Every structure is written in C-alpha cells, then in structure tokens.
Amino acid sequence: MGSTFSAPLKKKGYTLLVDLSRAPIPYVGSSLVVEKNVAHQEAKTYEALLKGTIDSLRFFQKPENKPHVLKTMAKHLRLNRVEDVEIGYNAMVAAYTSDLRPKPEGLQKIYSILTRSNPKLSTLKPESILDATFIQRIQSSGY
C-alpha cells in the first residue's frame, strides 16, 4: 500500500512495517513488460509510451504544477482531506525519478523469490529479459 493510503491508517493506530520508497531494498517497482519481438516491431509506439511516462514524471515534479497534481490526485484517488493528498504527493515526488532504466538488482530480488515457487524459472537468466535500449535511445537523444 502506498504512502497516500497508509498515512491515514497510521493515524488510526495501524503499524507501518516498511516504507518501500525509503527502504534500502532493491525492487522493480512499476515496469513495462512486453514480448521483445513485439516491442521491436512496434518500437515507435513503445518509445512514445516511455516519452509520455517521462513527461508525466517531469510534470508532477515541477513545483509550479503542484496545484494541478493535487487536484487530480484528490479526484482520482477519491481523497477528501487536503492533508492526505499532500502526503501522497510528497511520497510520489520522493519515490519517482525520470530515470526509467531497468534495475537489475530489483529484478534479481523478484527472480530469487519467484524461483522458490516455480523452479522452471531457474532456467531463465534475469538479465536476459532486461532491455534498456528504448530508454537509452530516448536519453541519448536528449529528450
């Protein structure tokens, strides 16, 4: 559960076990997962998707856009209290960067957990499924 929803629960006496956005635990977080051949066949589509994601991250991180972001969060997350929206906004700003490169250490952690329940995965090498070519191309273009 993200900070936006956990903060009100903490005030009601619930215990926070870990704040993953601040914990030194490698994890993948949000990811775009697609078959490699599909991604390369539709390269322009996936690059546009990544650029849109970068644009949205840049938008909410600019202080002058904060009022718009708060209003949108309140509406779509159905938050009535300004304080709860602020907590969620601050958590987002702290947690997200515009560096969208895949994190091998986060994938490795998930891989080690998943192979315990599905031994067939042990034949797969986690680094073989990471493809940073799209984000590298976007970053090298100066976008």
Helix content: 55-70%
Ranges where pLDDT stays below 50 over 5 or more residues in a row are none
How many beta-strand runs? 0
Q: Report the end-to-end length measured between terminal Cα atoms.
A: 32 Å
Classify the secondary structure makeup into a structural class.
mainly alpha
Count of DSSP-assigned helices: 7
Element-level helix/strand string: HHHHHHH
Q: What is the CA-based Rg, rounded?
A: 18 Å
Oligomer: single chain
Largest sheet descriptor: none
- Write down the domain tally: 2
Q: Give the CA-based shape.
A: flat
Give the integer mean of the pLDDT values: 85
Strand content: under 5%
Describe the model.
This protein is an all-alpha fold. It contains 7 helices and no strands.
Note the topology:
Blueprint: H1 3-11, H2 36-41, H3 43-61, H4 66-76, H5 82-95, H6 104-117, H7 133-140
Helix pairs in contact: 1-5, 4-5
Brief synopsis:
The chain has 143 residues and is an all-alpha fold. It has helices at 3-11, 36-41, 43-61, 66-76, 82-95, 104-117, 133-140.
